[in-house]
From TrEMBL:
<comment type="pathway">
    <text>Cofactor biosynthesis; NAD(+) biosynthesis.</text>
</comment>
<dbReference type="GO" id="GO:0050262">
    <property type="term" value="F:ribosylnicotinamide kinase activity"/>
</dbReference>
<dbReference type="GO" id="GO:0046872">
    <property type="term" value="F:metal ion binding"/>
</dbReference>
<protein>
    <submittedName>
        <fullName>Nicotinamide riboside kinase 1 isoform X1</fullName>
    </submittedName>
</protein>
<dbReference type="InterPro" id="IPR027417">
    <property type="entry name" value="P-loop_NTPase"/>
</dbReference>
<comment type="similarity">
    <text>Belongs to the uridine kinase family. NRK subfamily.</text>
</comment>
<dbReference type="GO" id="GO:0019674">
    <property type="term" value="P:NAD+ metabolic process"/>
</dbReference>
<keyword id="KW-0547">Nucleotide-binding</keyword>
<dbReference type="GO" id="GO:0061769">
    <property type="term" value="F:nicotinate riboside kinase activity"/>
</dbReference>
<keyword id="KW-0067">ATP-binding</keyword>
<keyword id="KW-0662">Pyridine nucleotide biosynthesis</keyword>
<dbReference type="GO" id="GO:0019363">
    <property type="term" value="P:pyridine nucleotide biosynthetic process"/>
</dbReference>
<keyword id="KW-0418">Kinase</keyword>
<dbReference type="GO" id="GO:0005829">
    <property type="term" value="C:cytosol"/>
</dbReference>
<dbReference type="GO" id="GO:0005524">
    <property type="term" value="F:ATP binding"/>
</dbReference>
<keyword id="KW-0460">Magnesium</keyword>
<keyword id="KW-0479">Metal-binding</keyword>
Length: 228
């Protein structure tokens, strides 16, 4: 069984969730784990000196629970899919194994080292400040953003977290969140598909090479028999 772990990170309202949710519709044997599902209860999230809740930190997340979910997928991707009501597709040819793809989406997935070490592919969605602010203000959050929250906390924390991410992670493909959903999906789908194809082609080569040896050996035996 082959596996591929894809990380889709990015700033708030950058389009990472939309992209992540679209990929399983195109990629067989894939599913999503979203970091937003692991926020701690609002009552335990600390407040900074400006009175803003500090949601944009790893301490605001149950990263241990998130890692347990990821490890559950690693142990048995097929069982993990069934547990979510999904079915795996059997598309193997010539004995090659299926590739199971885990899509991990979130704003701090590359800042948590134990998680970051698992990624085979890394993508990061970004949009300009003004677009991000407009998108953020148009969405309804629970609890709602207090006045001045974006400029006083959200944007500064994004810049800080991005700097930390770049200091500890390499191999990130940065995506322009202003591009159409279709264009972004096509680009990432193509890249991931090429990687899954590469993984399965390794199995085909391993299957064919011994077959060639058997054929060659058989031919040699026939030649010897004729000489005798």
């Amino acid at each position: 069984m082959k596996t591929l772990v894809v990380g889709i990170g990015g700033m708030t309202n950058g389009g990472k969730s939309t992209l992540s949710k679209s990929l399983p519709e195109q990629i067989p044997n894939s599913c999503i784990i979203a970091q937003d599902s692991f926020f701690k209860d609002d009552s335990v999230v600390p407040v900074d000196s400006n009175g803003f809740k500090q949601y944009d930190t790893l301490d605001a997340l149950h990263m241990d629970k998130m890692m347990s979910e990821v490890e559950s997928w690693q142990r048995d991707p097929e069982l993990f899919l069934r547990g979510r009501g999904l079915t795996s597709e059997r598309t193997s040819l010539l004995g090659n194994e299926e590739v199971f793809v885990l899509i991990i989406e979130g704003f701090l997935i590359f800042n948590y080292r134990p998680l970051n070490e698992l990624f085979d592919k890394r993508y990061f969605m970004e949009i300009p400040y003004d677009v991000c602010k407009i998108r953020r203000s148009s969405r309804v959050y629970t609890p709602p953003d207090p006045s001045g929250y974006f400029d006083g906390y959200v944007w500064p924390m994004y810049l800080k977290n991005r700097e930390v991410m770049q200091s500890m992670v390499s191999g990130i493909v940065f995506l322009d969140g202003l591009k159409s959903k279709e264009e972004l999906l096509a680009a990432v789908y193509k890249d991931v598909s090429q990687e899954t194809k590469r993984l399965t082609e390794k199995d085909i080569v391993r299957f064919i090479d011994p077959l060639k040896m058997m054929t060659a050996t058989g031919a040699d035996v026939k030649k010897v028999s004729c000489l005798n």
